[in-house]
Amino acid sequence: ARGDGAGMAAGADREAELSLLECRVCFEPFGPCGQRRPRNLRCGHVLCRGCVAALGGGHDGRRLECPFCRRPCGSAETSDCLPLLQLLELLGPAGGSVPAALGRGRGAPPGGLGLQMSLGGWGTLVNPTGVAACPSSGRLVVVHDGKKRVHVFGPSGSCLQRFGERGDAGNDIKYALDVTITPDGHVVVTDGGDRAVKAFDFDGRGVLAVREGFCLPWGLDATPESEVILTDSEAGALYRVVADFAKGQLMKCQMIRSQLISPRGVAVSQVSGAIVVIEHLKAQGPSSGSTRVKIFSAEMDLVGQMDSFGLNLVFPSKIYTTAVAFDKEGRVIVTDVCSQAVICLGKPEEFPTFNPLISHGLSYPVGLTYTANNSLIVLDSGDHSIKIYSAT
């Protein structure tokens, strides 16, 4: 069994390595020059120069649309992906091992986390947007842009269930934005397509759809009492949804905070009941905007916040946060798509701290959660995968 585990870990490393070094459109390996040279789009996704030109970003000035997140981008707005170019230089013309080039073979990444398994990939998942873990069964649930929007994985990585058809029926899902799992065993999804919150059991049966005049329900997380904390990005509000999901009855949908700026990701501490929210601040001028992390107590008092400027005092680089979670000790964990990293910001009373937990091997991290055994789950939209990290 130990040999099988080692083989699985090695296979996961190899899969992550191949995903990192290939263009995810043409699946050709990146190269240091010519048509295979890696180029960053404005959204952070990486394509080879040939695919950038083929998709409309050629010298004629036409704008392309990112094939992963659909954000428009012009050829003048693309740039060389320097981390990948540096990695290709380290590997050399004959190629080599990514772990060896990055020094991963000499020990665990910062924070003591090592990649244990990688699930999904293009075709299995399409532009995934949210991930959640069931604390009792170990199942992982991902929402994505495939024909069936909800994908359930078992603890071993096998596919257990797919549901949430794309369509207009009451239990269909038009465009899933995020997902959570309640302690009583229900999968709750935000649907940006018809501005609803939809709950299912693990067999895919729809049990409840909540449409309480939401403008754009986005992020959500479950409390230990099976309540759901929900952000409404367009309304700038935070809601608490109380329901008897087993009976399909909505008990209460209460706004608990207003005057937020485009709130999206949200997480609830299972230790203290604190709530952390990511605000997406509008850009002033040509900038693409920034993010702010706000933390509220269980009583919804503001206890701390950290924006890109404040974090830059600790970490001299632009930070753009896309997902947030609490670990088992109540520390705030965030993704940063600019540095392609997962970062620990510490407990609310410790702000600002900066501890990179994962600093390589990620492409465009958009989702975070923890399992009951304290494994860290990262949803990587760049290569359409789930990456599972455990202490080494």
UniProtKB/TrEMBL annotation:
The keyword Zinc applies. Keywords: Ligase, Metal-binding, Repeat, Zinc, Zinc-finger. One of its GO terms (molecular function) is zinc ion binding. Residues 23-70 form the RING-type domain. NHL repeats lie at residues 120-156, 160-203, 360-392. Its EC number is 2.3.2.27. The keyword Nucleotide-binding does not apply. It is an enzyme of class 2 (transferase). Pfam families: NHL, zf-RING_5. It catalyses: S-ubiquitinyl-[E2 ubiquitin-conjugating enzyme]-L-cysteine + [acceptor protein]-L-lysine = [E2 ubiquitin-conjugating enzyme]-L-cysteine + N(6)-ubiquitinyl-[acceptor protein]-L-lysine. Coiled coil: none annotated. GO terms for biological process: proteasome-mediated ubiquitin-dependent protein catabolic process; protein polyubiquitination. This is RING-type E3 ubiquitin transferase. It comes from Geococcyx californianus.
